[in-house]
Amino acid sequence: MRRSLLLLLGMGWVLMAGCDRLFAPSHLTLSGMLELTEHAVGARVPGRLASVFIEEGQDVTRGQVIAQLDRFDQAQRDADRMTQLFQQGGATQQAVEQAGLALEDQRIVSPVDGVVLTKVHEAGEVVAAGGPVAVIGDRAQMWVRVYVPEGLVNRVRVGQPATIRLDGLVHSLSGRVSVVAPKAEFTPRNVQTPEERVTQTFAVKVRLDHPEPWLRPGVAADVTLDLRGAS
Predict the structure, then answer these.
(1) What is the reported pLDDT for 2?
(2) Where are the domains of the chain?
(3) Global confidence as pTM
């Protein structure tokens, strides 16, 4: 009798495990918004902005000058003078390099190919060292943040493939999980229903494999994660 009972219990556990595998979802679709990596760009030294060469929404390239401080012209003359002195034997290579660095400090350049998301200051305003003059979005680093329920997060891995569908696009885009948050949080208030907002979730970033240059942040996106083979 006891042996039969143990056998029945064992069969029950096997059936329950099989049911769990049978009804476990093979795919998980979640909603988010398309975002991109942002760079707050500023001057290395304090000063007054003499010129700002960009506007919001403008495309920029890496190394492009987006603004100059009011001491740029003086720094340019100092650098030219130091170069001439060096050629005549009246200055050292170190002095030339220091003059060049002082000149670079008077210019603000874009660190990436991207788009101007925010123009923080205008010409004539005083800026602090390191204070942002503009925020540049990196078009090569686009991603969607979604929130995975705690019961399924163990089936999500970095590098896991994903399919991304954006509003207004007929075709889908490919991506991969790049970040899985190390701890749970409550779903943000602007996501899903009031009941789901109090659910414990894990933030997951899905990076686009080949972001198109015409994509714009803020577009609604549906992300489908392939859970097959994950456990």
Answers:
(1) 52
(2) 24-37+140-226, 38-137
(3) 0.72
